[in-house]
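Researcher: Structure for this, please.
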Amino acid sequence: MNDATPLNADQQELDKFSQLAHRWWDPSSEFKPLHDINPLRLEYIDSLAGLSAKHVLDVGCGGGILSESMAARGANVTGIDLGEKALKVAKLHLLESGQKVDYRLIAVEALAQQEAGQYDVVTCMEMLEHVPDPASIVRACSQLVKPGGQVFFSTLNRNLKSYLFAVIGAEYVLNMLPRGTHEYAKFLKPSELARHCRASGLVVDEVTGMSYNPLSKVYSLGKDTSVNYMLACRREA
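Model: Predicted structure, token format:
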């Protein structure tokens, strides 16, 4: 990626998360849902990839919630993001946790030109619904993982239920997220994400749903992919 290539990022999205960056590690803040779902997605990734001693890239790492938890499982983790304030928060939190993560301010497409095929596992969580060109992110993730390596994505489905739950419910009724966190038009159907994966040389292994029970306030994994879902795939050897 040269200097003339525009960043695959929405400046308004970056600004939005920058304003909240200092609250990233507050489990009662706007980032509470990320803290709540992190144990689920960590176990899911670890159960399929076996994180210990693996070289892992966390794309769109933000303040480092997933990055640190993967490092705690014994992975050698690199976290990248375009949010400078979030990365500063992530680096500061390492002083408190004692974990080791290599945080870098770089676009995934640029890193793919520098370190193609260098990672055993690539994760990209809750990011695709915030960028102008998700296919470009998927392509870069495929380039960065080693042949036979695994890539994990999570995002939001696009349908009436996801609009009602993830936008109206989470942002306006339950106030779980700041209003304007999500833009419905950027949500991705599993079939669309799977198509991007196949076009990038990735084989889709499984799609798993993540559901939230507003009564018990508990998240769980299952077959219901109608709102939140994770997609596990691997690069062809």
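Researcher: Any notable elements?
Model: The helical segments are 11-20, 32-49, 65-72, 84-97, 108-114, 134-144, 160-173, 190-199. The mean pLDDT is 87.
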